[in-house]
Specification:
Dihydrodipicolinate Reductase, domain 2, Rossmann fold, binds nicotinamide-adenine-dinucleotide, 6-stranded parallel beta sheet, 431 residues, 11-stranded mixed beta sheet
Length: 431
């Protein structure tokens, strides 16, 4: 049996403005573990081999290494040269599988001159500090979603600034952004097909995933020590004694995860925010809770409303308690519906469908063929290509930052039972 902590009442962990500022200050104080030096990214020519380092060798880290290997086998000049994990059994397995150098501290991997680009697939609350360290060391970054944890707004802001300043390539691991539907639709919207955009309706529904009840525990007797660095796992999260369930099943705990809002919704609202071309919200509010999986801390159901200053709203509803998507699906769940003054865009099968509004005499109804569906391998290939060309990848850092701001505002609003506002002048969340 796993040792799950007693689930705290949601309101008992209410985030007040004071506690939020205190916590974000603590997260900004990652300085103790960040690298001070700045190194420029190595300029990669078309024929240079990209040395890839993987930080975090759990489920997704192994999946990303599989993509890199697939590309390498198909002729891309890339090699997995180094791997890092703070849990020795996973580290040793990955190092052996890829004949790569093993590091138990990501800062040592970043100091390896053979590493040009890194993948980051550690738990959510660890990403931000590792991204900062990576770009300071001159490494290009493919970072898993969510880009940071829900309580780390200041860190997210700092990370975006550091990536911009570094000139390194940054791709967020929202692989559904490799679907050309969103890129084609963004262009159609910018050209005025739907008139002034008004509303994006998004949804994410699924059930039965292992993350909902708990991820597998590799070793029920695991203990901190030379083979498991509990301090490094905790990062800036509250200091707690070692708990085997927290370590292996971190997704169930609010110190390290946020539930569907941060775990799954980056896969659904990134497309909408990108198509609309909006950045920081003006307001966000949300409701949610545990409607099916009582054994965890984080909600399984979360519904959010976001307003943008461009007079466009985004609604995102979803649950991990049912997988009925109730609108045309497009991986990973329900495709967004984009409404404008002059018409609506939906995504059906291989087509973008334009339905004109009743008074629209300019643009008749039409269906536009989607050039390419989503492809996880292409998302990684796009990252590697951008490391050579310097072009912006499918999901660059500012898009990741803007998406995460909306998700963080909604999470804080839900926890406080309030509406979160965004202060543009201060670039700060106010709740
Ligand atoms: N894009 C996708 O579809 C997708 C799918 C699954 C997971 N993810 C994301 O990938 C990330 C990892 O998820 P997962 O399911 O692989 O989790 P996991 O627990 O299987 O793997 C995380 C690994 O990170 C290691 N780790 C923890 N702290 C570390 C540190 N400070 N330095 C180095 N290693 C550390 C752990 O030991 C573990 O092996 C999460 O952010 C998750 O949201 C994305």
């Amino acid at each position: 049996m796993s040792r799950l902590d007693k689930t705290p009442n949601r309101t008992s962990r209410k985030t007040t403005r004071r506690s939020f500022i205190a916590r974000t200050a603590a997260s900004a104080g990652l300085a103790a573990t960040t690298l001070p030096h700045k190194v420029s990214a190595r300029v990669l020519g078309a024929n240079d081999r990209i040395g890839f380092g993987m930080i975090g060798c759990g489920g997704e880290g192994n999946a990303l290494m599989g993509l890199v290997k697939q590309l390498r086998d198909a002729g891309t000049k890339v090699e997995i040269v180094a791997v890092c994990d703070i849990y020795r059994p996973r580290l040793s397995k990955a190092a052996k599988l890829h004949a790569a150098k093993a590091y138990d501290d990501h800062r040592e991997l970043l100091a390896d001159a053979n590493v040009d680009a890194v993948g980051i697939a550690t738990p959510d609350h660890i990403h931000g500090g590792q991204v900062i360290n990576a770009v300071r060391a001159g490494k290009h970054v493919y970072c898993e979603k969510p880009v940071t944890h829900w309580r780390q707004f200041e860190l997210t802001k700092q990370m975006a600034a550091e990536v911009r300043k570094s000139g390194c390539v940054f791709q967020l691991g929202t692989q559904y952004m490799s679907d050309s539907a969103w890129h084609q639709a963004r262009k159609l919207i910018a050209e005025g097909l739907i008139g002034k955009p008004l509303h994006a309706e998004c949804g994410f529904f699924r059930i039965g995933d292992w993350g909902e009840r708990g991820m597998p525990i590799d070793d029920a007797n695991a203990q901190p020590g030379p083979d498991l660095n509990w301090e490094a796992f905790l990062g800036d999260a509250p200091k707690r004694p070692f708990d085997v369930s927290r370590f292996f099943r971190w997704r169930m705990y609010e110190d390290y995860s946020g539930g569907p809002v941060t775990d799954l919704y980056p896969h659904a609202i990134t497309q909408a925010i990108y198509m609309l071309g909006v950045t920081f919200p003006s307001l966000a509010t949300a409701i949610g809770g545990k409607m099916r999986y009582e054994e965890r801390e984080v909600p399984d159901t979360f519904h959010m409303l976001v307003d943008y200053p461009e007079k466009v709203a985004l609604t995102m509803v979803g649950t991990q308690g049912s997988d009925h998507a109730c609108a045309p699906a497009r991986p990973p769940s329900r495709a967004p519906i984009i409404r404008g003054w002059e018409g609506t865009l939906t995504f059906e099968g291989e087509e973008i469908v334009f339905t004109p509004g009743p008074g629209n005499k300019t643009h008749p109804a039409k269906r536009i063929r989607i050039e390419r569906p989503f492809d996880h391998v292409r998302h990684m290939a796009n990252f590697l290509e951008c490391c050579r060309t310097g072009q912006p990848p499918y999901c660059p850092v500012d898009l990741a930052y803007h998406v995460q701001t909306a998700l963080q505002m909604a999470t804080l609003a839900m926890r406080a039972g309030k509406t979160a506002k965004f202060d543009r002048a201060q670039e700060a969340i106010v709740i």
